[in-house]
Amino acid sequence: MNPLVSDTQAEATIYAPWRSLGEKSCYSEDSLAETLDGGQSFRWQITDSGFWQGAWNSFVIQLRLKGDCLQWRAPRESTVPREEVLRYLAIDTSYEDMISELPWRSDSVLEEAIQSFHGLRILKQPLGETLFSFLLSSVKSIPQIKELCLLAAQQYGEEIIPGVHALPTWARLAEVEEVDLRKLKFGYRAKYVSATANRLVNEPEFLSIVEAAPYEEGRSLLMELPGVGGKVADCALLFGAGKLEAFPVDTWIAKALSARYNLNDWSLDQLATFGRIHFGRFAGLAQQFLFSFERKKAR
DNA sequence: CCGCAGCCTCCCCT
DNA sequence: AAGGGGAGGCTGC
Fold first, then answer.
1. CATH 1.10.340.30 domain position(s) in chain A
2. How far is the CA of A184 from the C1' of B8 (A)?
């Protein structure tokens, strides 16, 4: 039924044995789920056997939590370097040091959010893929964005292993007519994707320039792209370029800041600036805690 | 500089 | 049962 999910028997033969990614991942089932499937990435889901399965670039892996130990495995036929996995999951960075630098000691709202999602991390996804998925995100819920990504992958993405497709490259997307993207339920976002694809193909260095640039400069560059405003740019920079100071302000964060920090009638831009100043160098991580916490309370 | 409707489509609500 | 309102925004007026 679901193309990303294989049955239990097939899994055993297709996949290499489980390997550890480290005893001290700090993850709980909750914070792992929130990291993989809480709005940073739209490419993870639970298999029949209860593992997480996800894909980026041409990599497919599965993850599971065995006690405190995060484990991973990849299809036998594919080559997935361990370093790639560590980098994507941001396990190589000093997590506790970042937490320590957040102002939770003087901010009880943040403190409570961190406690309830300890282990939550910011992923380091490929920038191009991150930009693509957030171009589709406007006025869409997470399940809807996941479906759009899946449709695009199945239609225009390379098949990595049987049944699992990579997201389409920007080069491929540039070849696709806007009307065909609309057929994939993209709606008015089809125009953004087509126009952005054309620009990126004409300027092949664009995304690597963005990634190498300081935060503010990268943000301005991304916002030159059609369909990319402040929020989408910040999401791409935070989840796809390792710019941890980016502070995306969506409706959830706006609601949280307004209610909990008493910032009524502030514009989205003002809230983003407040977030970067108040939460500091790792504002984006604080944002993710607040975002997850706010959504949890709504459930 | 600010505020606002319109944009595709799906889903939930009455 | 048909129709309105809103959903992790951006653009142009």
1. 127-240
2. 11
Q: Which nucleotide is nearest to A139 (CA to C1')?
A: C7
Distance of C1' in B4 from CA in A279, Å: 31
A137 touches strand C (CB under 7 A): yes
Q: What is the pTM of this model?
A: 0.94
| Model confidence pLDDT, tens digit, residues A33-58 | 999 999 999 999 999 999 999 999 99
Cβ atoms within 10 Å, residue A20 = 11
Which structure tokens are listed for A18? 């489980």
| Burial of residue A82 (number of CB atoms within 10 Å: 0-12, 13-18, 19+) | exposed
CATH code assigned to A127-240:
1.10.340.30
- Six token digits for residue A59: 């990599």
Q: What's A8-92's CATH class?
A: alpha beta
What are the pLDDT digits (tens) for A106-142? 999 999 999 999 999 999 999 999 999 999 999 998 9
Burial of A212 (0-12, 13-18, 19+ CB in 10 A): exposed
The spacing between the Cα labelled CA in A138 and the C1' in C4, in angstroms, equals 21
* Residue range(s) occupied by CATH 3.30.310.40 in chain A: 8-92
Q: Which nucleotides of chain B have an atom under 7 angstroms from any protein CB?
A: 2-3, 7-10
What is the CA A267 to C1' B3 distance in angstroms? 11
Sole residue written with tokens 């100071």: A245
